[in-house]
Amino acid sequence: MSEKISVAILGSTGYVGLELVKILSKHPNVDIVFIGTEKSPNIPIQKLDSSIGISNIPNTQLNRDFDYNIADTVFLALPHSISNEYVKLFYNKIQIIDLSADFRLEDYEIYKENYGINHSCPTLLKNFIYGLPEFNRNELVNSKNIAVPGCYPTSILIPTIPLFSNNLIKGSNLIFDSKSGHSGAGKNFDKENIKKSNDYNFYNYNTNQHRHICEIRQELEKKHKKEVLFSFNPHILPNFRGMMSTIYCDLNDGIKENDVIKCFEKLDSENYFIDFKDDEQRADFFLVQNTNKCVLKIFKHYDDSKIIVVSLIDNLQKGAAGQAVQCFNLSKGFEESSGLIQ
Known about the structure:
Oligomer: single chain
Shape: globular
Structural class: alpha/beta
CATH superfamily of the largest domain: Dihydrodipicolinate Reductase, domain 2
Distance between the termini: 22 Å
């Protein structure tokens, strides 16, 4: 019989929490023993998402009633400034996989500047592994504390880190232009922002002021070993799920488009969930929705000294719940794709 891990999910009734329940309910090595909520206890999870057909999942209970002794791993699908309170309670008692922003940043001053002062255990910031498996795979093995990256950073870092690691692009004048389905804004998002009468809306927000900028900068500068200068312009689309980041880069002297192609072909060959499209197939949301894939394409610029990269993910899967399970699999020695293939 295969090894079974007892798992709890706090914040199970949000978009990301429900996605975690769906994935983990079909995972061959998982028993879900607790699903938590802030305000809606004693509800069968199927009432909140009818696509979850497994009957042996417990009803919801209040997050605060979770007893860490009943589980091996807890997934925290909670907002920033709330998640860290539970980490303080559970640290060193259970494996923690946190999907909030509370442990992604290594510098508390940067956290305070972007997320406020409500952090109960800032001394633990450097005790979490940044859960981007394609680049931190070895660190994730046997890890007890994992911080899952944000969705925008995931879509940007996956193609950009290897370009820096292989010295292919310059660390200045980068443009990250990103579009997300509205599920990325959470269940409290006002849908009137995107639908009015018979028409649909589309808009950018927090240009060069978005909280994810500090996370993107931290991880890129770790790899580049120098300051990285970029603009970040995020947008909300009227569709539910999916994310596209278009990245405009200046190539280093002597670097050609074919060097980027070889870099992405290698990235594809070494990573199950990276899919580089070097053909005429259109890269769109339908390729990534309800998958844990990151699909990459490159496009020529009119100036040969530049390159355009398009990166697509499902913001609820590779941008959140799917990536969390991918990290979980690596930490436990399971197949990296367990529970993540339909």
